[in-house]
C-alpha cells in the first residue's frame, strides 16, 4: 500500500513537471486588436532611449511596441530567433548581416519615401532592404584641451596631414610634459575590424585588392599598407601601455585617460563618445583622419565610414501584413517626421544618415563626423569581410602590438588568411 | 509507462531528438540562419579534422583540464581533511570554502579579471617599484589564471563530496588500524583512502567533465585573449558555429568534443569502479 502511494506521487510529480515544461514553451501566442511589433536593438548605448521611445510612440500611434536587446553577436542572436521561428518585426543588425540575411528574410522597402533622402540604404539585387540607423566613422580622436595644455597652442586638426606632421606634434606634446600622448585599443575588433580594413578601403577597388591578396600578392610592399602601418608604429611607440601591458590595457581605462586629457589621441570612432562621456570629458574633442604619408585618394582629408546599424523588417509568415505596415510606419516616422528626427539626434545622440535631417549633432565626435559626411569626405566602409576576419587577424595584430612579431610577419599572415579564404563573401 | 513515461518523453524531447537533429546538421553546410540546409555529406568532418585552430584549442583544453583536475582534487581532499579533523569552527570553514562555487562562472570571471588586471598589478607596482604587466596579457599567464580560478571555484564543491567520504568511513576502522600499530599516514593511505574510493571517482569525473566543457569562465576572464591563445574547445566550437557562421562544422566539432568527453568519462568511471572496496 505504502509503495503504491509513493509510486502515484512520483508519477504525479513527473506529470506536473512535464506539463509545466510544455506549458512554458507555448505561451507566446495571442495577438490582440492593437498591432504589436517587436524591435531588436543591437546598440547597447541607446537601449534605454529606445525603451522610452517604444512607450511614447506606442501611445501616440496606437501600436504596441516592445524593444529587446542582446549582447550576443548580432548574427548569433538572429540565428537563434530564426531557428525558434520567433523573428523580430524589426531587427537592428550590422551592414554585413543585411547582405547575408536580407535576401531571404527582409521585405522590400524600395517604395518608401525616405529612400531618396539617403545614400546609405542597403540594396540587394536592386531591392532596398536595409534602413540606415546612423552614420559612424573611424579616425583619430583628439582631445584639443589636452594638446593646448601641453603645447600652449590651439590645436588645428587640419594642420596634421602626414605621419611626419604627427610625429612632430607628438614630440611637442612630450616636450610639454605629456609622457605618452597616445592610447591604443587592443581589442581585436579595433585592430582588425577598424584599423586593418582601412588598408582595403583606401584602395581604388577594395574587392579587386583583396582578390590580389588571395592570389598571393605581396602586401608588405603595398603603399597603403606601409603608409598606415608607419602611422600605427608611431601610435604604438607612444602608447601609454607598452609590450605585454598593451595587451591587457582595458578599453575603459584608455578612454578615461583620453577624457581626462592624460593622453591626447586614440584611434576609434564616434561611437566611443558613449564611453568617453562617462568620464566628464571636455567638449573640445573631435575626430580627424588618420595621418598618412601616402595621400592617394585624398585620404589625409577623409574619415572612413558610412551607414552603421541597419533596420530590416521580417518577411516571414510570423510577421503579419499589419505588423509589416506598422513597422514601415515606424521607419518613416524615424526618418521623415520632425519628432523622429529629433529623437535620432537629440535623444539617441546618433548622426543621422538622412539629408533632410538638418538638426545639429550635440556630441563633439558626432559633430566631426557630420561635418565630414556633409562635405562628402567619407571613404566607404567595406562591408563584405568574412565573419572570422576580425578574430583571426585580430589575434595576429595583437602580437604585432605586443612587439612579438614584425610587420613582414603580420603582412604574411594577412595574405595567408586571404589565400585560404573561400572568397564567398567578397564582392 | 505510468512511472517512467513522462520522464522518458521529456528526455526524448529535450535530449534525444535534438541530439539526432544535431547529428543531421553536421551533414549540412547550414550557416545557422538560412532556410535551406544544403546536404554536404561528411565534408564538415573533413573540415573539422583539418581545422588546426580547433585541435590546438583541444590540446590546450587537455592541458588545462589535467592540471586543474589534479589541483582541484588535491586541494579539495586536503581541505576536506582539515574540516573533518575537528578543528575549531570547522562548519564555518566548510561554508567559506564552498561559497566560491555559489558564484556563477561569468561573475567570477569578471571579479577575477579585476583582481588580475588591477589588484595584482597594483601590488606588483608597490612591491617592485615599477609597473608590471597583467598576467592576463601573456599566453602562459592567461592559462595560469584560468587554472587558478577554476581550482578556487571547484575545490569547495569537491571538498563537500570528500567530506561526505570522510564521514562515511567508520572511525572504528581507523582506530583499529592505529591500535594495530599503523602511523596516522599509513592508516590514511591503507584504510581511509581505499574506503573513500567512490568519492574520488565522483570528484574526478565531475571535475574532468566540467573542465573539458569550460566556457563561462573562459568567456568572462580571458575571452580567448591574448592572441586567441586561451580559446578553449567549447569557445572555439561556439565561435565557429555562431560567430563565424559555420554551423555545420561547429556542430561536427561539438560532436567530436562530446565523444572525447564521453570516452574519457567512461574509461575513468570504469577504472575507478573496478577497484572499489567495501568495508
UniProtKB/TrEMBL annotation, chain A:
Source organism superkingdom: Bacteria
Signal sequence, start to end: 1-24
GO biological process: transmembrane transport
Gene3D superfamilies referenced in this protein's UniProt entry, alphabetically: Periplasmic binding protein-like II
Pfam family, one: SBP_bac_8
Keywords: Signal, Transport
Family membership: Belongs to the bacterial solute-binding protein 1 family.
Protein name, entry field: Carbohydrate ABC transporter substrate-binding protein
Organism: Alloscardovia theropitheci
